[in-house]
Design goal:
This protein has one domain: Jelly Rolls, CATH 2.60.120. The chain starts with a strand and ends with a strand. The protein is globular. The chain is mostly beta strands. The model has no long low-confidence stretch (mean pLDDT 89).
Length: 301
């Protein structure tokens, strides 16, 4: 059968919401601009954002309001390519919070985009995934994830771990960007707990800077239990416990999605997760200065 490609909505990154808001006076009262992947519009003021216009994308950009103090963080922005098209630029950076001009709090944030939603405003950094839902309903069986990318890895040689709640620490080893597609079969029990089988896996980490754009890069989607395959790496393993992402259950509560096993290669698919990040996927860990540009994300069958 001939191969064909299916675009993921808004994954050409030509359309963006621009959000303007002012941080609290105690933090300096700066005007900040945030972006969201959705039909072009402008939003003014500290308004909690939800996905709009049919866009399935959320990002690490966030408006926080902790005990009445407004803060904004922006690590994903639109950037123009040489051909005039827009792409998404994902940056790993230290977000510095300066209180009354004296007290500095530093939080390491990796720029990330993902299929799902972020429920603003953020109230705490204690549970970084607690306001995120990952994945969208999906029933097809693609063979590959296809995209263009351009990567600059930080030359610091190490990463840092910084939550703002304690002094930042050095994490040995260089930074890496990451892109993945995961296909799950999910179900919910009578108590509202959500479980999943991993049906399809395509996950790759990138440790080398590129010489410009790499167009039409592909990640294979492998079905069934891949844990004994020669290409398997620990980061491809099932997402359970602290590694679980979340979803909104039928009771309107955000709960973890526990992957309790590998699905059969022909098991029904109910949800798809796609994520791209300038970091390795661990909250508050990364190397300042790593930048991932990504564009034109497709599914290939």
């Amino acid at each position: 059968m001939a191969q064909h490609r299916e675009a993921i909505p808004f994954a050409d990154f030509e359309h963006w919401v621009t959000r303007h808001l002012k941080e609290s006076p105690i933090l300096g009262g700066k005007e900040r601009t945030l972006y969201a992947i959705a039909p072009d519009t402008i939003i003014n003021g500290p308004i909690a954002y939800r996905n709009r216009g049919g866009s399935p994308w959320a990002s690490s950009n966030a408006y926080a309001n902790v005990v009445g103090i407004r803060k904004a963080s922006c690590t994903v922005i639109p950037e123009k390519r040489a051909n005039g098209d827009l792409c998404a630029r994902l940056d790993s950076k230290l977000e510095v919070v300066r209180v009354l001009g004296m007290v500095d709090i530093e939080v390491l944030i990796s720029g990330s985009i993902y299929l799902g939603e972020l429920y603003e405003p953020i109230r705490s950094v204690n549970n970084p995934y607690g306001k995120m839902t990952m994945g969208i309903p999906f029933t097809k069986r693609p063979k590959k994830l296809v995209f263009d990318y351009n990567l600059k890895i930080s030359d610091t040689g190490n990463r840092i771990y910084s939550t703002g709640l304690s002094p930042k620490k050095v994490v040995q080893g260089p930074d890496s960007a990451e892109v993945y597609i995961l296909l799950q079969h999910r179900w919910e029990d009578e108590k509202g707990n959500v479980y999943a089988h991993r049906v399809g896996t395509g996950r790759e980490r990138f440790t080398q800077s590129t010489d410009g754009w790499v167009n039409g890069y592909t990640i294979d989607v492998n079905y069934g239990d891949i844990s004994t395959q020669p290409y398997f790496r620990p980061f491809m393993d099932l997402l359970s416990g602290k590694r679980s992402y979340s979803c909104m259950n039928s009771k309107g509560k955000i709960v973890p999605v526990e992957e309790i096993g590998w699905g059969a290669p022909d098991e029904e698919v109910t949800h798809m997760l796609v994520m791209a990040s300038s970091g390795c996927g661990t909250a508050f860990v990364g190397a300042e200065g790593t930048t991932l540009l990504i564009d034109n994300i497709y599914l290939e069958y």
